[in-house]
Structure to design on (1321 residues):
């Protein structure tokens, strides 16, 4: 088990290197620092001096890979590649284009993100499983078919509609909670309840439909027939036999997302004015702050890889047939 | 559970009576089981025999009211001790299942819940129908495990199904079925998924329990050997109807229906053998090894090898059939693939007509591909569902460069189809329009299309019903006489060997433990493993 | 008149032609036919397909672009023909100039007056502050009170014309398809509903703004209809870009195994570990920088928007092939173990031939399922991307842009709900139809579900 985890962590290195190279190519080779400076400065006809100034201020005035002017190791380290990409491996994210320290920003902003994303995630799974179980109890009936249609209809509604609709109905018309905002002291839940609600409702269609398929797949297995032949009631078959088995595929689909909860949700956070990483990314995209985007890509990849590892570990816990080696 | 319920019924009491049972497809109303009647007696095994699709499994599921939604019981009754099961509410029916009528299924691995310990699965039955709880419950399960012959029952209680062997899994199923001391046991193909040696043990266990507990057993099977070894009474089912019913002795000595006759004829005749041909060897294997690496540790280094085939030497003469017999996992199919050069060999030599062909490259192997052909086990997956039968047969001729004009090729395909007893117009049809037996004939035609010297037959009949199996084997024998082709016949079933093979080799764990002429192996086996295999073969 | 062929127009027609050829080739394969027959034998499938077909029709009509010839002024005595700088589509013409009737700013559905007060002169020439009348709504009415009756009368007339059109369209189908085993009636009913509402919309929009106007005074219904082309094209073209990458890599990895497999797996793990939205956003922004720095590349504004659109399709395609690639790799691994591939090896069939004849035809069902499944996901994604600011060009009508422009207007009193309603409704109908259709396609083509039904 330990050897397995270590091996998986070692395997993660080439992937992170790949991510790094890809982003570097995208940000510095496809578009040269000159192009970026020109577009940041906003004017079509900027003077070369202004570009040089901007590059120097943001540390883009070095060669890409190899610095022939420097001596020794500095030939490799005194470059854009080393400065902007290699340092990420040491979790040194540097400063954003507007001069703020990215590491501090990330550290303070991940908690509001988590405060919204974690409850949404947990409540969402709970609700979806309950809904799916109820539908599966009536499998093959009109109710089941009707429910599937409703799920598909719910899936077909744009996420934006859920958010805008939720804000309009709950916050504006009924005035139950504030439309948006976030405070760390006092009644935080007041600001969290609507985004969580919207997140959960928006996920029911796809989630419950997926879980229903998983449950039905298990319901057609031979061991269910065995349980029935033993004299089990339908209810106990559902909870004691089908559910534990269906948890295995549910886990694979779900555990991988847990680390990424730190990243928050782009849409929810921006609509509800939550100062998390999601709105941080959105602001970075809108202000074309590539330093932040680069750092977030790296963080996101690490979290995804951790998620994959957690998935494998959770497998051994849920499925006695799997042993990691 | 009260004392009096535990008393056993007297031998011969009717425990379950099926009357005019009719099962139809819910959608079309087509009858799958057509008004059949029989009764089960305490202490007796009643065998219901038939091929796939005959309706025998549907009958058993209907008796338990466990039919899938697509099927419906449209007429008849099933009485257990005078009570009609079809009249009970679902809640009352749940009390009957597992308590008075219990069932065991074909594939124990999939019939057991994979994420629950086997002990708990048996305990669940007891918890549903008795008041046993806690340590008493556990002790009862351990006793049951002991009774059905599971070694170390105390430890095995906490095992998951995948940690047990196939035979032990089936024993757990039996323990689960017997836990509440039912009157009736329905066993649906209980041994089909097991290796022959284990099959015999499980059947003997069922037989013993029938006697000791005065169970009324309904044994559903397609295997006449199983019937012969286990049953007291036989009924033959054919297309949803019971066509014949007799005691076992009566049935095997004097079958009334032609169909029954055919089923019995499929049993081996251990008195007639084919004599080994004496010609120079066509294919020689010398100390052939096929190893698969096992990787472990941080760097996934190769620490060991799975020795799938570990030093096998054999020779096949021209026009000769060599039967390679062994249980699943013995390495016999891997050996066949190695001869076809689909699996790299780790050592030894494969010679075809005196030339070494082991380890040849893709293009160097091409001339030999014309001469060594193959027929696979599963006829349904061995043909591309998106190609017509004509294209399937033509594929080899084209790629191996048999220079034929399109017309000549078409004629040859039609001739081949007719040779394997299909008609010429079948060339334009697609594989899914054919039955398993027909597909296997097409597979034979495909192999013959390039005029091979040797055909590797990898379990070509094990997916087929008994009566069709005989036809395919007969066709193979005919073709051998006609074209002088040799067969390397891979099978797990010793009973088809007489009348088919000249020579037999027995494989166990990658090694050839014994080989010789068919007569030697089947009449005077020397190796204990061969003897065990042979003792499981039913005889008339 | 001078036809204009935008890149996206060419691609969409290419796609339609190749799909048609693809199905023409498949018509002989009985299994494929049987499965399609299964999809179309359900009434729901027929309805969903008809709706999708209607959307595609609109998208195709909206992809036939041209520039109008301008009439030369009398003073200019030359034979040369000048063309309008504005690109028009056949669809614009068919809607009867619905898109050319602009107001000053917001107005409610069927309103006669503007939504906002302005300084206007009353009948006596005094300056007053009131809601000004709209320029293109209810001009023919002598009194505002006649509006309800007028709408009703015009609706009935439009409905009659609609029914006549239905008769023209459906009768030949009926003659042709009578006695077919498919539930064509469901399709005809849907067609009738679509045709009647189309006629109703076109004829009423000549006198009213059915869904009101937006901030810039543009007709909301027309914008919603223009969003169809963007949605449909994005949904299909992005998948089209992804398919060759995913299929080639997936099949190669699953078939050749070894180092090829390692490389492909590495590629898609790396790609899928990057948060998708960031990758898309970064790529789009970088392309934006490129366009900004090279403004001379494109002759017409529409061409620039189109280039951005194609780039978006490419970016979505290139960043999203990993899921399909994984599925195809797994399926190919399974297929290469099957008897027919083994038999092909035993017959010495070459790798290319095995891939072409045995592997590819048997993974087509996965491609198909992904294609229909991704379509609706992409249509929904467009709205989100436009909201984030990395979607299609603002000058190109799209539902995302409409929502983006109107999302803050719900907080106004009285609420401006019509823009959002229009965009969400047209998007919902398309996505719902696509989702329902993809469910049926999956049920018919996925061997796992068909196996389940066979065993039941």
């Amino acid at each position: 088990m330990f050897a397995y985890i270590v091996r998986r962590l070692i395997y993660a290195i080439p992937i992170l290197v790949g991510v790094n190279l890809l982003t570097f190519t995208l940000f510095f080779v496809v578009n040269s620092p000159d192009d970026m400076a020109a577009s940041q400065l906003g004017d079509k006809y900027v003077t070369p001096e202004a570009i040089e100034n901007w590059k120097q201020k943001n540390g883009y005035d070095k060669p890409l890979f190899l610095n022939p002017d420097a001596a020794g190791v500095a030939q490799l380290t005194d470059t854009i590649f080393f400065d902007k990409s290699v340092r990420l491996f040491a979790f040194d994210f540097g400063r954003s284009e507007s001069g703020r320290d990215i590491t501090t920003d990330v550290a303070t902003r991940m908690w509001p993100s988590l405060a919204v994303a974690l409850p949404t995630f947990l409540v969402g799974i709970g609700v979806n499983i309950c809904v799916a179980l109820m539908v599966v109890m009536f499998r093959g009936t009109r109710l089941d078919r009707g429910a599937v249609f409703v799920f598909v209809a719910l899936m077909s509604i744009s996420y934006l509609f859920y958010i805008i609709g939720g804000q309009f109905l709950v916050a504006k018309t009924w005035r139950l909670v504030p439309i948006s905002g976030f405070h760390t002291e006092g009644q935080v839940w007041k600001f969290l309840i609507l985004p969580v609600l919207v997140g959960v409702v928006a996920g029911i269609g796809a989630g419950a439909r997926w879980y229903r398929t998983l449950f039905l797949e298990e319901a057609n297995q031979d061991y269910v027939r065995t349980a029935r032949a033993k004299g089990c009631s339908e209810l106990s078959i559902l909870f004691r036999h089908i559910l534990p088995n269906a948890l295995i595929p549910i886990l694979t689909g779900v555990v991988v997302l847990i680390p990424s909860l730190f990243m928050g949700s782009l849409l929810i956070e921006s609509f509800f004015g939550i100062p998390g990483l999601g709105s941080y990314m959105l602001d970075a995209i809108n202000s074309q702050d590539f330093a932040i985007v680069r750092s977030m890509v790296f963080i996101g990849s690490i979290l995804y890889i951790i998620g994959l590892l957690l998935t494998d570990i959770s497998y051994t816990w849920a499925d006695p047939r799997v042993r990691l080696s | 559970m009260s004392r009096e319920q535990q008393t056993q019924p007297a031998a011969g009491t009717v425990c379950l009576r099926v009357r005019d049972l009719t099962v139809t497809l819910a959608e079309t109303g087509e009858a799958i089981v057509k008004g059949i009647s029989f009764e089960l007696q305490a202490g007796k095994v009643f065998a219901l025999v038939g091929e796939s699709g005959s309706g025998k499994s549907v009958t058993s599921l209907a008796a338990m009211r466990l039919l899938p939604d697509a099927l419906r019981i449209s007429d008849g009754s099933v009485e257990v001790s005078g009570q009609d099961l079809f009249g009970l509410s679902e809640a009352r029916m749940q009390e009957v299942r597992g308590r008075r009528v219990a069932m065991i299924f074909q594939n124990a691995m999939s019939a057991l819940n994979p994420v629950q310990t086997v002990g708990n699965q048996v305990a669940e039955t007891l918890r549903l129908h008795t008041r046993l709880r806690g340590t008493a419950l556990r002790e009862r399960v351990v006793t049951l495990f002991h009774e059905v012959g599971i070694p170390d029952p105390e430890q095995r209680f906490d095992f998951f199904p995948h940690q047990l062997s196939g035979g032990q899994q089936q024993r757990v199923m039996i323990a689960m079925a017997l836990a509440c001391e039912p009157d009736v046991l329905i066993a649906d193909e209980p041994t089909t998924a097991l290796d022959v040696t284990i099959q015999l043990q499980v059947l003997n266990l069922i037989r013993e329990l029938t006697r000791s507990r005065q169970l009324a057993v309904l044994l559903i099977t397609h295997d006449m050997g199983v019937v012969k070894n286990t049953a007291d009474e036989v009924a033959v089912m054919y297309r949803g109807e019971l066509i014949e019913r007799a005691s076992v002795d009566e049935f095997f000595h004097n079958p009334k229906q032609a169909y029954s006759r055919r089923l019995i004829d499929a049993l081996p005749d251990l008195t007639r053998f084919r004599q080994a041909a004496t010609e120079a060897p066509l294919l020689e294997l010398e100390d052939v090894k096929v190893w698969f690496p096992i990787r472990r540790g941080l760097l996934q280094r190769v620490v060991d090898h799975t020795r799938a085939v570990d030093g096998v030497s054999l020779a096949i003469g021209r026009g000769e059939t060599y039967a390679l017999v062994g249980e699943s996992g013995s390495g016999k199919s891997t050996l066949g693939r190695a001869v076809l050069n689909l699996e790299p060999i780790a050592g030894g030599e494969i010679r075809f007509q005196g030339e070494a062909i082991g380890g040849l490259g893709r293009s160097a192997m091409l001339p030999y591909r014309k001469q060594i052909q193959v027929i696979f086990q599963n006829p349904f997956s061995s043909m591309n569902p998106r190609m017509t039968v004509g294209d399937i047969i033509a594929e080899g001729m084209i790629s191996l460069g048999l220079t034929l004009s399109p017309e000549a090729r078409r004629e040859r395909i039609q001739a081949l189809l007719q040779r394997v007893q299909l008609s010429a117009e079948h060339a334009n049809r697609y594989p899914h329009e054919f039955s398993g037996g027909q597909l296997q004939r097409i597979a034979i035609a495909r192999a013959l299309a390039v005029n091979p010297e040797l055909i590797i037959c990898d379990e070509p009949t094990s997916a087929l019903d008994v009566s069709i199996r005989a036809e395919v084997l007969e066709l193979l024998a005919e073709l051998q006489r006609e074209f002088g082709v040799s067969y390397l016949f891979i099978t797990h079933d010793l009973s088809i060997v007489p009348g088919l093979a000249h020579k037999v080799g027995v494989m166990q764990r990658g090694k050839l433990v014994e080989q010789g002429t068919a007569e030697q192996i089947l009449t005077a086996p020397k190796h204990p493993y061969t003897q065990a295999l042979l003792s499981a073969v039913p005889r008339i | 008149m001078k036809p204009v062929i935008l890149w996206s127009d060419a691609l969409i027609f290419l796609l339609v032609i190749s799909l048609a050829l693809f199905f023409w080739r498949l018509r002989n394969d009985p299994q494929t036919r049987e499965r399609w027959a299964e999809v179309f034998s359900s009434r729901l499938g027929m309805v969903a397909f008809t709706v999708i077909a209607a959307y595609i029709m609109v998208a195709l009509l909206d992809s036939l672009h041209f520039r109008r010839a301008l009439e030369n002024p009398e003073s200019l005595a030359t034979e040369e023909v000048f063309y309008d700088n504005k690109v028009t589509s056949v669809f614009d013409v068919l809607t009867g100039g619905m898109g050319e009737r602009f107001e000053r700013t917001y107005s409610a559905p069927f309103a006669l007056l503007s939504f906002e007060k302005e300084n206007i002169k009353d009948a006596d020439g005094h300056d007053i502050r009131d809601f000004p009348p709209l320029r293109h709504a209810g001009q023919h009415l002598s009194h505002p009170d006649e509006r309800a009756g007028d709408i009703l009368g015009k609706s009935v007339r439009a409905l009659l014309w609609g029914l006549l059109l239905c008769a023209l369209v459906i009768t030949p189908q009926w003659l042709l398809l009578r006695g077919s085993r498919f539930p064509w009636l469901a399709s005809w009913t849907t067609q009738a509903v679509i045709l009647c509402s189309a006629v109703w919309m076109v004829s009423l929009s000549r006198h009213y703004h059915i869904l009101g106007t937006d901030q810039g005074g543009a007709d909301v219904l027309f914008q919603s209809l223009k969003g169809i082309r963007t949605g449909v094209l994005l949904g299909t073209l992005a998948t089209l870009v992804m398919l060759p990458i995913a299929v080639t890599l997936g099949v190669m990895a699953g078939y050749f195994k070894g180092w090829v497999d390692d490389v492909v797996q590495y590629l898609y793990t790396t790609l899928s570990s990057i948060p998708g939205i960031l990758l898309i956003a970064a790529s789009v922004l970088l392309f934006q920088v490129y366009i900004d720095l090279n403004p001379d590349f494109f002759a017409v504004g529409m061409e620039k928007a189109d280039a951005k659109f194609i780039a978006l399709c490419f970016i979505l395609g290139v960043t999203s092939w990993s899921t399909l690639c994984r599925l195809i790799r797994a399926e190919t691994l399974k297929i290469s173990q099957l008897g027919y591939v083994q038999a092909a090896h035993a017959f010495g069939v070459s790798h290319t031939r095995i891939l072409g004849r045995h592997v590819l035809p048997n993974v087509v069902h996965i491609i198909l399922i992904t294609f229909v499944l991704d379509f609706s996901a992409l249509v929904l994604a467009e709205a989100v991307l436009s909201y984030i600011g990395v979607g299609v060009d603002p000058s190109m009508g799209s539902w995302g842009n409409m929502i983006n422009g109107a999302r803050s207007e719900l907080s106004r009193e009285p609420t401006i709900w019509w823009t959002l309603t229009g965009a969400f409704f047209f998007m919902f109908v398309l996505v719902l139809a696509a989702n329902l259709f993809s469910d049926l396609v999956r049920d018919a083509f996925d061997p796992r579900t068909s196996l389940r039904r066979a065993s039941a």
Remarks:
- Residues 84 and 145 of chain A are 54 Å apart (CA to CA).
- Chain A has a mean pLDDT of 85.
- The two ends of chain A are 6 Å apart (CA to CA).
- The longest helix of chain A spans residues 102-137.
